[in-house]
Design brief:
The protein has 8 helices and 6 strands; from the N terminus they run ααβαβααβαβαββα. The protein has 176 residues and is an alpha/beta fold. It has one domain: Glutaredoxin.
Length: 176
């Protein structure tokens, strides 16, 4: 009887908790995301600058904003991207899932967003690239649109440093 109780406790203590399972599931999505190039669809409504960046051969930072949750909160956070752009000196493209392009443009103008924007009215970017977790909403792409790093570097020193090193490596390769 004691052995069965000990065995039961051993199983309970070593079984993954709900939190550990969520982390493992998130890791699975990240590994899957990093294993394939990011797809851009020609049916988006990009401005000219975004179009040339998406289908060009330059490394770029992509930040995706979906239509769920507090849109005003997400747009107010975008103000910090000018710091990212100035520091990393690499193109930043916003992919915005929205049904209302005029209203979205107005909101972006109100925060002085000066970077290329892609308007995805059909949710194709999220679907085509299987973006299923907020971690996958910011990523660095190489010249072939392969993701190299995922996660938002704003407010995360370790991730910021990782982006910094990888962007330096990418820009060094391009200058040779």
């Amino acid at each position: 009887m004691k052995i069965s109780h000990l065995l039961l406790w051993a199983i309970v203590l070593t079984a993954p908790t709900g939190c550990q399972r969520r982390i493992a599931e998130k890791d699975k999505y990240i590994v899957e995301f990093l294993s394939r190039p990011v797809r851009f669809d020609h049916t988006y409504s990009p401005d000219r600058a975004a179009d040339s960046l998406l289908f060009g051969t330059k490394p770029k930072l992509i930040h995706y904003v979906d239509s769920s949750g507090c849109i005003s909160c997400k747009f107010s956070d975008l103000k910090l991207w000018s710091v990212v752009h100035k520091h990393f000196r690499i193109p930043v493209v916003l992919v915005c899932e929205t049904q209302d392009i005029p209203s979205t443009r107005y909101r972006l103008q109100s925060i002085n967003w000066r970077f290329p924007v892609v308007y995805d009215t059909a949710g194709l970017f999220r679907t085509n690239n299987r973006i299923s977790t907020p971690v996958l909403q910011t990523f660095l792409l190489d010249s072939g649109n392969h993701p190299l790093i995922v996660g938002n570097p704003i407010g995360n020193t370790q991730l910021w440093n990782l982006y910094e090193k990888e962007i330096a490596r990418l820009t060094d390769i391009r200058e040779r």
